[in-house]
Write a structure and sequence with these properties.
Elements: H1 15-18, E1 35-36, E2 59-66, E3 72-78, E4 83-88, E5 92-94, E6 101-104, E7 110-118, H2 123-132, E8 140-149, E9 155-163, E10 171-180, E11 183-192, H3 198-210, E12 212-213
Antiparallel strand pairs: 1-8, 2-3, 3-4, 4-12, 5-6, 6-7, 7-11, 8-9, 9-10, 10-11
């Protein structure tokens, strides 16, 4: 199933129904620290930033802070599932769906997609499956594919994926997959291809660098 924008997602069940795989760029020294593993350290570069609002019970926004000279950030936290991420203060949190959370900019051309579930297979196999969903497709370019260490110390994997031929809304997606305490954490920053540039790439990387789990 192709996903266009958040406002058109009534029949979306999970992030995988939206696209399925991803890819990213190297980032250092912003809100958090997403580090490439030793094997991947030669081949990546940085870009990034973060968003806004509330949710329910164990899901909450916390303190705002200055974000690397690009404005103030808030933190979205799910205490029950041990997850946190920073986002720009003028973005809005939509936690109305029990399967995922979205944090969206004002015109819904950029958004964060957060999906947390039980681990079903190990991270290496999950990453391999994720990659294989896209490699055969002529309308998808994988621009980065790296093992990383999250700011909280857990191993993860990131991608940057470009979908060039979507009928509704071609996109870039900066993706991060991590596992901890029996949970699998997907964080995707999805950006409309028509507005994607170095600033948005940098913003996406800063957001991913702030992710902490476990």
């Amino acid at each position: 199933m192709e996903r266009s924008s958040p406002s058109d997602q009534a029949d979306i069940v999970t992030r995988r129904d939206f696209f399925g795989a991803g890819s990213i760029v190297f980032l250092s020294g912003t809100t958090g620290c997403l580090r490439l593993s030793d094997d991947d350290q030669q081949s990546e570069e940085p870009e990034n930033e973060t968003g806004d609002n509330d949710s329910e019970s164990d899901q909450q926004d916390s303190s705002t802070k200055e974000g690397n000279g690009v404005g103030r950030f808030k933190q979205y936290t799910d205490e029950k599932l041990s997850y946190q991420v920073d986002y720009p203060v003028n973005w809005k949190v939509d936690a109305s769906n029990e399967d995922y959370v979205q944090i969206l900019n004002e015109d819904e051309t950029v958004w964060i997609w957060i999906e947390i579930g039980e681990v079903r297979i190990d991270l290496e196999l999950e990453v391999r499956n994720f990659r294989e969903n896209f490699e055969p497709r002529s309308d998808v370019n994988i621009h980065a594919d790296d093992s990383v260490t999250l700011s909280s110390g857990e191993a993860g994997h990131r991608f940057i994926i470009e979908m060039t031929d979507s009928e509704t809304n071609p996109i870039f997606a900066h993706e991060l997959i991590a596992q901890a305490n029996g949970n699998q954490y997907w964080t995707s920053i999805i950006i409309s291809r028509s507005i994607y540039d170095d600033d948005y790439a940098q913003l996406a990387e800063e957001i991913l660098a702030s992710v902490a789990v476990g």
